[in-house]
Design brief:
This protein is of the alpha+beta class. The chain has one domain: Creatinase/methionine aminopeptidase superfamily (Creatine Amidinohydrolase), CATH 3.90.230. The protein has 4 helices and 14 strands. Strands 1, 2, 4, 5, 6, 7, 8, 9, 10, 13 and 14 form an 11-stranded antiparallel β-sheet that branches. It has a 3-stranded antiparallel β-sheet with strand order 3-12-11, with no helix packed on it. Helix 1 runs antiparallel to helix 2 and helix 3 runs antiparallel to helix 4. Bound molecules: magnesium ion. Magnesium ion (MG) binds next to loops. The site of magnesium ion (MG) has 5 residues, from loops.
Length: 237
Amino acid sequence: MREAGKIAGGARALAASLCKPGVSMLDIDRKVYAYITHHKATPSFLNYGGFPNSVCISINDVVIHGIPSERKLKEGDIVSIDVGAKFKGFHGDCAETVAVGEISDEAKKLIEVTKQSFFEGLKMAKTGNRLGDISNAIGTYAESFGYGVVDKYVGHGVGRELHEDPPVPNFGRPGRGIRLRDGLALAIEPMINAGTRDVYVDDDKWTVHTADGKLSAHYENTVVIMGDEPIITTIVE
Ligand code: MG
């Protein structure tokens, strides 16, 4: 899990570094594919349920599952990169929203709050707590800024499969859900909208947009519960 996470995290960092005006989504996808395969891993998303690429690239009002195309990134875009890698039978899964050049203060705040909401959830990711403690911490934090917490898509267990039980919602009640135990691996991934939580799926059957056309941000790491100090496999130093 550590090795797979390191490769996924490295791929996320690479993709983030490529988010510059004029770079196409497919340029990023090709470089991420090369990075993951160079590290003797396989891109977890490629052909997953028919997904055609190695990275989900979701721009501006796209929440998740954006399919890379020839579209070039523009100054002012916010770009959510979501990438997974499978190494020696285990997956790492992570995401981050990054700015292309200068972005609005509104967009910066959404990105920061989304990232911080993950870390608010992480504070509760301790052995003996309940899953709902994580979910509640994420949702409560994001909602305190008036943002919409996406509820149609949630985080998940991760390990030998990319998506395993339990579902990890970004909202919920503390003290509810399964009890966290050592070794439980979770992909914790707040998806936060600047406007309402409502979303719809594009005709391409993948791309998830905000219903009101406002911005959305995403932040994710693979986290292994271990006592009071969870292991984050996908953050690379
Ligand atoms: Mg995930």
